[in-house]
Amino acid sequence: MPHIPSIFGTVIRKTLLAGLVLFCFQAFAQNSNYQGLLWKISGNGMAKPSYLYGTMHVSNKVAFHLSDSFYKAIANVDVVALEINPETWMQTMTSDPFVADRMGNVFSVRGDYSSSGFYTSLFKLEAPTNRQIGAALASELGILNSLLYRNDNYGVEFQEDTYLDLFIYQAGKKQGKEITGLEQLGTTMRLGEIAAKPETDKEKKKANKELALKRRFEIEKLLKGKNFNEVMEDAYRRGDLDLLDSLSRMSGGSDKYHDYIIVHRNIGMADDMDSIMRQKPLFAGIGAAHLPNTYGVINLLREMGYRVESVQDDKTDFGRGTKDRLEETFITQDFTTKNSFDGSFKMDLPGPLYEFPEANNTVMAAYPDMANGATYVTTRLFTFAPLYGITPQQYMAKIDSLLFENIPGKILEKKEIYRNGVPGYEITNQTKKGDVQHYFIMVKPLEIVVYKIGGKKKFVYRSEVQESLQNFGFVANDVKWNVFSPKNNAYQINMPGSLLCEAE
């Protein structure tokens, strides 16, 4: 679909005001005002042109019919902007309570505790089953796929390595462009929540219901028996923004939703583009639904005095070669040592380590390298082994028997290692897609620690990544006792270790 309201998924179905005009395919061919995905912006005293591109927030190949001019446009600007700067996503999602609360299970300890009770379920001192150990070995943070790839197992052969928006970001980053966003994630999500609130006024509810029925009839006539997604994708493939606009409005929700998610945001993005373009040439990639109509970004820029014209160009070996070179290029990152939340182990990372408390005695942490499409993930499965008389060597044997089933693809190398006296396995594997991954699977007296680095193709063999692996290890610290209390300060208690989750 051409536009998704948040960075993770639901396709926007937008609406127009009550006097919606029904278009037919012939009308679009005869009266086309917004045709094309790439638009050149000039005038208003700019020394060099800027560019606007209508994206789809997906990795499907339909979004990657990219012309030579697309790549030339990115190469010839100073700033690359998306709706939201990818470099800010993880920080916002883990620090803004409003955003974090709406991200679901990956950001907080959740689950169905109706039968067993929250604290009973969370703090069960149970030895993990083979299935739970296997899950820890194979564990993936779903949020990383949403942030970096947006791939699914069934359509992998018909998808690119990442989705179009992040491809634009990476193309700019790899060419040394300044990166920015036209919106803030928290602000956009708050607008979405306001827009989605159900109507309480009885008259408006009745009018919305009647309008929805009318639009259902209209869109059925417009589709002429064809599948909605097929018509939408065909329109995007041709760059027919007029048709995309009508499909989106006819299949949408309330007028209020359209005003908040499209019209209001268009004004803000056009204003931010204007501010940037007055200083530096810009390439902006935003959802295609934001471009057309009188309230679209194209017309808003024209009203500001800019000349905005569609750029049509062929797709030749130049563009295909540029794409291949960009995908084979990686940025050398600076690594610094980061500690786990309790300081018990350390690793070298190119950015912050973000913690994700999970249920079932499992804690995960990760850093997504947005520029290189790489992930650094730790998974900790607490075993409480001494309570059950299970030794680290017994867990090593158990893990060894589970590796074949739970390590993706083919194991290229496996060796038994010790890090600071802690036994474990160091594994290199290659997925079915040809991506190489590197594992440390370590067995401590109370837990199993899995540290995995993954990236496209042979990313993990890069010298700075291999060097960082040498610093992974464990820290022998004296147990520190700390004073903990709930937010309401009803009590205080001295406990060893670090706070994992805070009681309300």
What's this entry about, in short?
This protein has helices at about 25-30, 70-75, 90-95, 95-100, 120, 130-140, 140-150, 165-175, 185-195, 200-225, 230-240, 240-250, 255-275, 295-305, 315-330, 385-390, 390-405, 465-470, and strands at about 40, 50-55, 80-85, 180-185, 280-285, 305-310, 335-340, 345-350, 355, 360-370, 375-380, 410-420, 420-430, 435-445, 445-455, 475, 480-485, 495.
Q: What can you see in these coordinates?
A:
The protein has helices at 25-30, 68-75, 89-95, 97-101, 118-122, 130-138, 142-148, 164-174, 185-196, 202-223, 228-238, 241-250, 255-277, 297-303, 317-328, 385-388, 392-406, 463-469, and strands at residues 38-42, 50-55, 79-84, 178-183, 282-287, 307-310, 336-339, 345-349, 354-357, 362-369, 374-382, 410-419, 422-430, 436-443, 447-454, 473-474, 481-484, 493-496. It is α+β, with helices and mostly antiparallel strands. The strands form four sheets. Strands 9-10-11-15-14-13-12 form a seven-stranded antiparallel β-sheet, with helices on one face. A six-stranded mixed β-sheet has the order 4-3-5-2-1-6, with helices on both faces. Strand 14 (436-443) and strand 15 form a beta hairpin. Helix 6 packs across helix 17 (392-406) and helix 13 crosses helix 14 (297-303). The longest helix has 23 residues, at 255-277. The chain is globular and about 75 Å long. The two termini are 40 Å apart. Residues 1-31 and 105-114 have low confidence and may be disordered.
